Each structure stands twice: as structure tokens, then as C-alpha cells.
């Protein structure tokens, strides 16, 4: 009974605050980071690889600056939680904790502050501050609709878009891609489109897509689906053009990877973009 109540409470908190609880660590939605203005970032080569100079450069590259300790505390009060230490503006290293666990902060709730670091070549991640981010997307209850990245074909830097789809409860969402061209990089850390089998972006991740390979047709397991698009400060592409429709549930269970069809013809107004290369830490 106690375990059931604990699980129910965790589920309620996750829905209320945009958090997800996995492996004894709370993970928050990217939307919460952007609402607070503070976001975590690390080198494309992995965690804890940035010197202070590199941390400043990568935040500037993403259209922001290293966050101050006050900005990180404000974000933590808004619900930002990340058990990863990062550089701040005054050569300080810290990280925000909203819910303590055995794997995070030794029971401390708040901002875990490592203080000002005398060795500016130490390797950490970074917390950047960028209040203004271009937004787009929307909430849709239509039974069929075209969706595209902002300004398709082509898209601007520093965009963050979320589309939530809800069709009649007896139906499923079938998502097909007509065109797809985002910056390609290992791990899809720069520009990407994520598809979630849920009505939010903290659970039910199906996959993250980038590059110019056309994603497979995806069918949800419920009547809801979420798409999240993000672009960084550098290379762009045509973006994506997709179509969703409400369909009857399948009679047999099959993997999403098997749900592939031949793609329709590329729209006539889609023109190729020759992106220039930008360095990115």
C-alpha cells in the first residue's frame, strides 16, 4: 500500500511540474529550462569537458551567456533540476536540485555550490542563460493535419517548437514524413526533432531524428502524440514536412520500426540548402 501511494505521488508530481523520475534522479522537461531562462549544456564530445573559457564560448554560441548564481537559484525555485555540475558566470561551479535522492546532492535541496574555482581550466559542463527563445508549434485536436518546421523550407536558428496532438480517444495518431532535412551530427545534439508517444515531452520518447534520412511512419499507442523541434545557433537545412491523421488502432501489436512506407514525392517548393560549417564545442 505504501509503495503504491509513493508511486502515485511520484506520478502526480511528474504531471504537475513537468518532471520525470528515472533511476532515482529527477529529469525535467526542456520546456521548463527555457521558461526559466537557464539551460544546461555540455560538449558534443561528452560530459565534464569544458574549461571556463570554453563554457563562455559555447553559451555565446547558443545565443546566451553563462548564468549567474542568482539566475540558477531562480531557475531552481521554478523547478529546474539537474544533477550535473556546470560553470557559472563568476567562475563558480554549481547545479540545481529540486528533489534529492541517493544519487544526487547527498540530501541537499537547492543549489549545490562548489564555489569560485581558482583553476579556470577545470573541466565541467555549463549553465547558460537565454531568456528570449523563438517559439512555435501548437496544440491540435484535428483528425488530420500537415505540420512543418517554422518557415519551411528552411528554418531559423534558436527555435524551439512543440506540437501536441490529441485525436478522439478511440483512435491512434499516424505520423508520416514527406520531407526531412536537419543538421546532421552524432547524437542529434544540435538540430533535432523528437517524437513522443504521450501528451508531453518528459516521457514516452520514441526517437530523436536529425540528418536527411526520412523517418519511418510512426503510430502512437494512445490517442496522443507530441513533436518537439529544436535548432541551435549554426547550420540549418530545409526542415521537415509531416502529415498526421487519426486511424483505428492496429489489430496486432507491431514495432514502430516495422511501420515504414514509401515516402510521397518531395513538394515542389522544397529547395536544397547548402549549410556552411560552424565549429561547435
Automatic annotation (TrEMBL):
The keyword Disulfide bond applies. Residues 254-281 are annotated as: Disordered. It comes from the Eukaryota. SMART domains: CUB, LINK. Keywords: Cell adhesion, Disulfide bond, Hydrolase, Signal. Residues 37-130 form the Link domain. CDD domains: CUB. Disulfide bonds join 59-128, 83-104. One of its GO terms (cellular component) is extracellular space. GO terms for molecular function: hyaluronic acid binding; hydrolase activity. Pfam families: CUB (PF00431), Xlink (PF00193). GO terms for biological process: cell adhesion; negative regulation of inflammatory response. Residues 1-18 form the signal peptide. PANTHER family: CUBILIN-LIKE PROTEIN (PTHR46908), TUMOR NECROSIS FACTOR-INDUCIBLE GENE 6 PROTEIN (PTHR46908:SF4). Interacts (via Link domain) with inter-alpha-inhibitor (I-alpha-I) component bikunin. Interacts with ITIH2/HC2; this interaction is required for transesterification of the HC to hyaluronan. Interacts (via Link and CUB domains) with ITIH1. Chondroitin sulfate may be required for the stability of the complex. Interacts (via Link domain) with various C-X-C and C-C chemokines including PF4, CXCL8, CXCL11, CXCL12, CCL2, CCL7, CCL19, CCL21, and CCL27; this interaction interferes with chemokine binding to glycosaminoglycans. This is Tumor necrosis factor-inducible gene 6 protein. It comes from Petromyzon marinus (Sea lamprey).
Amino acid at each position: 500500500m505504501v509503495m503504491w501511494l509513493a508511486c502515485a505521488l511520484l506520478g502526480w508530481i511528474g504531471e504537475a511540474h513537468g518532471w520525470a523520475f528515472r533511476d532515482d534522479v529527477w529529469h525535467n522537461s526542456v520546456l521548463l529550462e527555457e521558461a526559466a531562462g537557464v539551460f544546461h549544456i555540455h560538449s558534443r564530445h561528452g560530459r565534464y569537458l569544458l574549461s571556463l573559457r570554453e563554457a563562455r564560448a559555447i553559451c555565446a554560441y547558443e545565443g546566451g551567456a553563462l548564468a549567474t548564481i542568482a539566475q540558477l537559484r531562480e531557475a531552481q525555485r521554478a523547478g529546474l533540476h539537474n544533477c550535473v555540475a556546470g560553470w557559472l558566470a563568476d567562475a563558480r561551479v554549481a547545479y540545481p536540485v529540486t528533489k534529492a535522492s541517493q544519487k544526487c546532492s547527498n540530501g541537499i535541496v537547492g543549489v549545490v555550490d562548489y564555489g569560485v574555482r581558482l583553476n579556470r581550466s577545470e573541466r565541467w559542463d555549463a549553465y547558460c542563460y537565454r531568456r528570449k527563445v523563438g517559439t512555435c508549434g501548437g496544440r491540435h485536436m484535428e483528425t488530420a493535419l500537415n505540420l512543418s518546421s517554422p518557415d519551411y523550407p528552411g528554418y531559423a536558428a534558436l527555435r524551439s517548437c512543440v506540437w501536441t496532438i490529441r485525436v478522439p480517444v478511440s483512435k491512434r495518431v499516424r505520423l508520416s514524413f514527406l520531407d526531412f532535412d536537419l543538421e546532421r551530427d552524432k547524437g542529434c545534439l544540435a538540430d533535432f526533432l523528437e517524437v513522443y508517444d504521450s501528451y508531453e515531452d518528459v516521457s514516452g520518447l520514441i526517437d530523436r531524428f536529425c540528418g536527411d534520412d526520412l523517418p519511418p511512419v510512426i503510430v502512437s499507442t494512445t490517442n496522443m502524440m507530441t513533436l518537439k523541434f529544436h535548432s541551435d545557433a549554426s547550420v540549418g537545412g530545409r526542415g521537415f514536412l509531416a502529415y498526421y491523421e487519426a486511424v483505428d488502432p492496429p489489430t496486432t501489436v507491431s514495432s514502430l520500426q516495422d511501420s515504414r512506407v514509401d515516402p510521397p514525392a518531395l513538394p515542389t517548393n522544397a529547395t536544397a540548402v547548402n549549410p556552411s560549417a560552424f565549429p561547435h564545442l
